[in-house]
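in:
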């Protein structure tokens, strides 16, 4: 990101957040003219101003580091491998959370939806799927949408895939990550996947249901699951800031009975 203009990054993120220049400037306590000069590259923002703008635009720690680098400053937030000794306690706690959630599936994923941690129930759901389908590392978008993955086992694939494709489209737009963009282009070539430029408009509406459920075949039985996504409340490390926990819960008594009997 060192060759990027930080003013361009600020302007782009402000646009994504649908914030006017005047509104954002007044909120952070500077003049609209000053913010305009920063966005145009006519004024170099201080570290304090950059971090204030980033906070009000709800940037991730990774994006804040990118802004600092683009402005010629050193990054502020460390990025520690989840497998490293510094995060061993956090990793053990996350794994304990996922294991406690068993016999219901649970995973920890990064911003590209690459699998970082999982429990036994989650691994059972993907048993029998070729390893190359999910990629290396295993990517949940690939696993869920690939015709040789879970797509063929998903009874309500049009509705469930619409939810996933909207998330993938938003992630590509927000992060401008070339890896996600390449994945989206690949997914668009798979069977039963709508045209790429329609993803943001796809609907998952299902009458009378309070939450969209994932209806998945498991052997001769059908599971109905909904999920909850959660993140760290006070991360100070890029790795933890990027991490999300997705826990799946039974949407009906039949699913709960099936999963508990497999325990």
């Amino acid at each position: 990101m060192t060759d990027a203009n930080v003013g361009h990054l600020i302007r782009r993120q402000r646009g994504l957040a649908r914030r006017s220049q005047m509104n954002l400037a007044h909120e952070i306590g500077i003049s609209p003219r000053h913010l305009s000069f920063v966005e145009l590259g006519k004024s170099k923002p201080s570290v304090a101003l950059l971090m204030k703008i980033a906070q009000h635009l709800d940037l991730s720690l990774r994006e804040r580091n990118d802004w600092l680098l683009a402005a010629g400053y050193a990054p502020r937030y460390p990025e520690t491998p989840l497998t490293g000794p510094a995060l061993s306690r956090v990793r053990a706690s996350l794994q304990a959370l996922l294991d406690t959630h068993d016999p219901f599936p649970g995973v920890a994923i990064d911003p590209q939806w690459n699998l970082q941690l999982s429990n036994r129930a989650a691994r059972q759901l993907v048993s029998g799927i070729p390893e190359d389908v999910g990629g290396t590392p295993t990517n949940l978008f690939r696993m869920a949408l690939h015709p040789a993955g879970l797509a063929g086992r998903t009874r309500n694939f049009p509705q469930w895939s619409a939810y996933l494709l909207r998330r993938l489209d938003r992630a590509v737009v927000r992060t401008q990550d070339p890896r996600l963009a390449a994945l989206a282009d690949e997914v668009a070539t798979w069977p039963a996947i709508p045209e790429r430029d329609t993803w943001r408009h796809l609907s998952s509406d299902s009458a009378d249901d309070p939450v969209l459920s994932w209806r998945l075949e498991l052997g001769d039985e059908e599971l109905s699951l909904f999920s909850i996504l959660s993140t760290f409340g006070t991360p100070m490390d890029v790795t933890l800031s990027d991490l999300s926990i997705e826990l799946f819960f039974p949407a009906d008594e039949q699913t709960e009975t099936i999963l508990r009997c497999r325990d």
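note: The longest helix spans residues 157-175.
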